[in-house]
Amino acid sequence: MKQTEFLNVVMPFKDKLFRLAKRLLVSTEEAEDATQEILLKLWSKNDRMKQYASVEAFAMTMTKNFCLDRLKSKQASNLKLVHSNYTDGSASLQRQVEAQDSVNWVEKIMESLPEQQKMALQLRDVEQYSFEEIGKLLEMTPAAVRVALSRARKTVREKLIEKHNYGIA
Amino acid sequence: MELHNIEKLIEKYLDATTTVAEEETLKAYFLKGDVAPHLKEYTAMFTYFSVAKEETFTKQVPLKPRKRNYKWLSVAAVAVLVFGIYYGNDYREQKEAEYVLHQTKKAFGLIAQNLNKGTEKLVYLNKFEEAKNKIYKTN
């Protein structure tokens, strides 16, 4: 497969890979590195690429596994991810909660979710994948995806209400 | 009427039983602005989801080096092949010509040798002439 051909295949979903990586790794730089790594890995396998039913699904699974491995090795080596605006959050909240702020809060709330729920929410509400697709990606049954997604949505909502009330008071 | 519908959809949404199309309806409602006060928190959620989808991967992926190496390698290989065939052919033709020349020379040599043998024998014809002359003289 030629380079241009490869790029044509990869173009439509490279942003999805990046957003999933960012959802898991939080930092933009790390997500960029991870996406780059995944694309290079795909490129090195490009002769086998036509065999995959869906290159996108394959790439998404690769990204998921890659990022989870990253997180694991980070925990093992006791390196914490940089949540640069994590502590600042409560301070800004005490000032006044504006509409824009609560939108940013959703991102922070999503960071605090367990990984499965985080990914389910990302893949469904941001990328609009079907439950079957998400199930395959996360190695869960569609029913389990539903449960995770429902929990994630409820948690985000509850925490938003909490923050909101707190901000007003 | 619409609000009632939205409330129903929200309930389904929280149970994760909405379809993608229904979620699109919800998103459209919350992004439109005019949202019922008791549903305000969903505005933030849906706004964030649509904002999050806008994020793109802008970093360049360095695919080129590997590609270029292969390209030049194949160009070089083709060049060598063409040279090989071209000059190789010339060389082969030359060798063939030399062989043919050699063979022809050998053949000519053989012919010449045999021809000489033939002419040697022709000497005996002179005997015949001598004998004839002798006979005619004596008569």
TrEMBL record, chain A:
<protein>
    <submittedName>
        <fullName>RNA polymerase sigma-70 factor, ECF subfamily</fullName>
    </submittedName>
</protein>
<dbReference type="InterPro" id="IPR013249">
    <property type="entry name" value="RNA_pol_sigma70_r4_t2"/>
</dbReference>
<dbReference type="GO" id="GO:0003677">
    <property type="term" value="F:DNA binding"/>
</dbReference>
<feature type="domain" description="RNA polymerase sigma-70 region 2">
    <location>
        <begin position="12"/>
        <end position="75"/>
    </location>
</feature>
<dbReference type="Pfam" id="PF08281">
    <property type="entry name" value="Sigma70_r4_2"/>
</dbReference>
<dbReference type="InterPro" id="IPR014284">
    <property type="entry name" value="RNA_pol_sigma-70_dom"/>
</dbReference>
<dbReference type="InterPro" id="IPR039425">
    <property type="entry name" value="RNA_pol_sigma-70-like"/>
</dbReference>
<dbReference type="InterPro" id="IPR007627">
    <property type="entry name" value="RNA_pol_sigma70_r2"/>
</dbReference>
<keyword id="KW-0805">Transcription regulation</keyword>
<feature type="domain" description="RNA polymerase sigma factor 70 region 4 type 2">
    <location>
        <begin position="105"/>
        <end position="155"/>
    </location>
</feature>
<comment type="similarity">
    <text>Belongs to the sigma-70 factor family. ECF subfamily.</text>
</comment>
<dbReference type="InterPro" id="IPR013325">
    <property type="entry name" value="RNA_pol_sigma_r2"/>
</dbReference>
<keyword id="KW-0804">Transcription</keyword>
<keyword id="KW-0238">DNA-binding</keyword>
<keyword id="KW-0731">Sigma factor</keyword>
<dbReference type="GO" id="GO:0016987">
    <property type="term" value="F:sigma factor activity"/>
</dbReference>
<dbReference type="InterPro" id="IPR036388">
    <property type="entry name" value="WH-like_DNA-bd_sf"/>
</dbReference>
<dbReference type="InterPro" id="IPR013324">
    <property type="entry name" value="RNA_pol_sigma_r3/r4-like"/>
</dbReference>
<dbReference type="GO" id="GO:0006352">
    <property type="term" value="P:DNA-templated transcription initiation"/>
</dbReference>
<dbReference type="Pfam" id="PF04542">
    <property type="entry name" value="Sigma70_r2"/>
</dbReference>
From TrEMBL, chain B:
<keyword id="KW-1133">Transmembrane helix</keyword>
<protein>
    <submittedName>
        <fullName>Uncharacterized protein</fullName>
    </submittedName>
</protein>
<feature type="transmembrane region" description="Helical">
    <location>
        <begin position="69"/>
        <end position="88"/>
    </location>
</feature>
<keyword id="KW-0812">Transmembrane</keyword>
<keyword id="KW-0472">Membrane</keyword>
